[in-house]
Amino acid sequence: MSKTLRIKKGVDIRLTGEPALTCGEAPRPKVVAVQPTDFPGVTPKLAVKEGAQVQAGEALFYDKTCTSVMFASPVSGTVKEVIRGAKRRILAVVVDADGSDNAKDFGAWNGGDRDALVAHLAAGGAFATMRQRPFDVLANPADTPRAIYVSGFDSAPLAADTGVVVEGRMDDLQRGIDALGMLAGPGGVHVGTRAGDNTLAGLNGCTTTAFNGPHPAGNVGVQIHHTAPINKGEVIWTMGLQDVINLGSFLRTGRYSAERVVALGGSEMNDPRHIRTVAGAKLSDLGVQANAGARVISGSVLTGTSAGAEGYLGAFATQVVALPEGHDPKFLLTEGWLSPGLNKFSMSRAYPTWLMPKSKQYTLDTNQNGEDRAFVVSGQYEAVFPFDIFPVHLVKSIMVNDIDAMEKLGIYEVAPEDFALCEFVCTSKIPVQSIVRDGLDALKVELG
Amino acid sequence: MKAIHNLIQSIKPHFEEGKLSRFWVVFDSLETFAFTPGHVTHSGAHIRDGIDLKRTMFLVIVAMVPCLLFGMWNIGHQYHLSLGQTSDLLANVLVGAWKVIPLIVVSYGVGLGIEFLFAGMRGHSINEGYLVSGMLIPLIMPVDVPLWMVALAVAFAVVVAKEVFGGTGMNILNVALTARAFLFFAYPKQLSGEIWIHDVAASKAGGMLVDGYTGATALGHLAGTVGTAADQASAATMSLFADGGMFSLSNCFLGLIPGSVGETSALACLIGAAVLIWTGIGSWRIIASFLAGGLVMGFLFNLIGANAYMTISPIHQVVMGGFMFGMVFMATDPVSAAQTNTGKLWYGFFGGLFSIMIRVFNPAYPEGVMMAILFMNVMAPLIDHYVIEANIKRREKRLTAATA
Question: Domain map of chain B by residue range?
């Protein structure tokens, strides 16, 4: 019987366009891109040239510092182009899929010691989605983490359903968990589940903890904090549920898998549902149909990136959301700050919608709903930030680049995604997530 | 809507460059006043909470409306009382409006003028902070204060208390209270005189006042009793505070007493508190702990009972003077208050405690709540520092426990 923890702080933002609990096969993508920008802390070194033939599982690039960790092509095909940005930074490696099932064979895992397992996973691309705290970056395979945490559910708005995600893949999940058990230090493997959902109850070789409460209860950072918080000097690894499944599949078959069950949702999404595809797939190839002018987001509405209909599914994205853009100015009496606001969602009770039942769904657009201001209102972040950390003070210490204060205030435990709701509720519209990312990067540089 | 929007857009280019570009700040603030701009999110969360600073500040002003309306009526009511006349609602409100509207105009005119100037100089848009300060200042002014004094106080408060620190969100002291404190210290004679009731000085000179009418506030009367033992205090003064007296508990609670424009009615302040707490704009922690602090101090004074002032019941203490108004609208200013949840409790408690303590111990400062809140504004960062330090210690302890 697993322990159940109650997370009180946070908020569930109910958006219209919830994905149906069915999973269809998406058409095979014709084009796939692996985007180094999805992996914070990684400086990519290309392993292939434009025009090269690659099999699924063959390395496209690797990290400059952790050279053993390969970032593999999800499909077989031809490297079409390497897209670069300012200062020739690599933004994406685009592969034209040939539609075949050719995949590089790394050999099924037949057992061995920890070092051999790490090397096997790193070479086969299955280690690339392992992240570490502190810093929320690619895990260093040379470390032995105190524990490895896997969040068994996503509490973000319109998130993929765990039951749909793991359906038919429980064996691979178990295999993946067993492998993580070999990698983890004394703390072992932890899986956080949603209280009342027994989908993952049968897992062995890990400690399961049930979490009850609103978003961000499904964030792995919150789950770590409430079970065994990270202290200075400790390293924790984290991995997404689907990445663990793919890791298990890789060990079973010896072939790299980037399979993704993706939730399509949002008010502008036609036919919201779950589909099965691969990470990095071009969204327009998948039958993702969003209304014209909508913003298509790879990832959640709180943490995702604006991909556009011609964009690609992010490396960690398990959902695609289409929202209306909010370009239209809002007149003060009808939709602006003096309006009754019967369709405005707010944590603050400043609009009467807080009297509505919690199950009411809202259609929110991408308007910032206000202008940038200095910090004025206090106590807002605290209400949606379930950590024993003072979020505003931590953010301020990052703004003034005070490394010492950041450490003392607990920056080791957090990732930008943990601040997503702070950013959402902020009256002063402060870009909290990018500030936290900058802080983590600055600290990483400082500590070498 | 479309027509207004098109009009604004058509004149926009004149302000973006050309002769009118120096008035860009004015244009921008009016445009964003009318239309929440079509800014879309570009980093981080793609959707945002519906609240912005304009809505926040607007709700604080809504919370002040009962105090404002009651204050207007009460000015007329007190005026007619001082002359021994009976009057109707309309006559009272007209007298009040005659006094209050110029105060509001001067407060917003001077304050926003300075805000525009600084925003223009610094090249940022107008912040909404003064919308609230500009309404608070008239409400904490004595009725008959000369308008030039208000203008001077506003200018001092906005420049010295706010703009030199960097504008809205950066100030250490509450802006409105700074304006009041400036007047109190710069013009002590005028501010302790007969300015609490409309035209009371003129009425006195003309011999029109009711017999024995002084025009002093409750706290003014009580300040006169300090220094004499409880039983020697003027029975005439203390009878004002008994049931049926001018400053009886019910009169003080309802606000049928002389005082600053908007502060007299505890009931109106509590309605404001309800609005602020309901909407979540004002911190219930500060309001509740401030009240608790005041009641505790009042109760302690009851136990000591060294003079007549101390024998006033705690409930009576907190409904007199500016205590309630300060508690609801001044102490809760999120910028100058403590920012941590634990800190807010301490901040409020000591604010309330000191309010009553100062007014009783130091008759030179009858309005203790002003001094107490300004003092706690200065102390708030220190309180937060200790709350955060405790959090840091907890984290360090966890580390030593883990490594030991």
Answer: 25-33+53-192, 229-392
